[in-house]
Amino acid sequence: MAALPAQAHHLMDLGAMAPTPLNGLLSGLAHPVVGPDHLLFLLSLTLVALRRPLTWVITLLGVGLLGSAAGLLWPAAPGAEVLVSLSLVVEALVILERLPAALLVPSMALHGYVLSAPVLGWSTMPVATYLMGLLVSQLVLLVMTQTLIKRAATVLQPPLRRLIALALIGLGGAWALAQVMA
After folding, report:
1. Domain limits, the chain
2. Which of 33-42, 63-72, 114-123, 147-156 is predicted with the least confidence, judged by mean pLDDT?
3. Average pLDDT of the chain, as a whole number
4. Is 124 exposed, middle or buried (0-12, 13-18, 19+ CB in 10 A)?
5. Coil vs helix vs strand at 100
6. Interval 123-150: pLDDT, tens
7. Helices 158-181 + 36-49 axis angle, to 10
8. What is the DSSP string of 114-164?
9. Is the CB of residue 32 less than 8 Å from the CB of residue 39?
10. What is the largest CA-CA distance in the chain?
11. What is the CB neighbour count within 10 angstroms for residue 178?
């Protein structure tokens, strides 16, 4: 599975559903779970957020939403999916404290940009409910994960964080290579 390219998918693709406001909302709510690269990116943000306030995470979600808006205005940037995969490598290097956490801001915007691609061509209301569902699901996922990880912070000693970071580098690199080779 790790060698397969990661791509932005959503519930609408899986169920071949029509773009209605309710289906847009359901698709937005489900998207973080259906896209493995986005899910890993979001979950791993909490490792960086251990040393930051919750408002930092919420700000990143806002940046992701702005990235989605940019994707709706200027779609189809070449290589965006490859960069999303490589953002896992950037995130791992931030976790390892080899890069500044500020690099996660453009990475989050890029994730938002790519998440807008599946809804291009939809009418305004399904797109709005998709973005609302996406924002809510990511917020709930990040707040829950950050709360759980802060409680388990003693378990996440540096060796385990390094192992997680190495796994992110491997997956991000493999997904990016698979995209380039495709």
Report:
1. 11-181
2. 147-156
3. 86
4. exposed
5. coil
6. 999 999 999 999 999 999 988 888 888 7
7. 150
8. HHTGGGTT--HHHHHHHHHHHHHHHHHHHHHHHHHHHHTTTT--HHHHHHH
9. yes
10. 48
11. 16
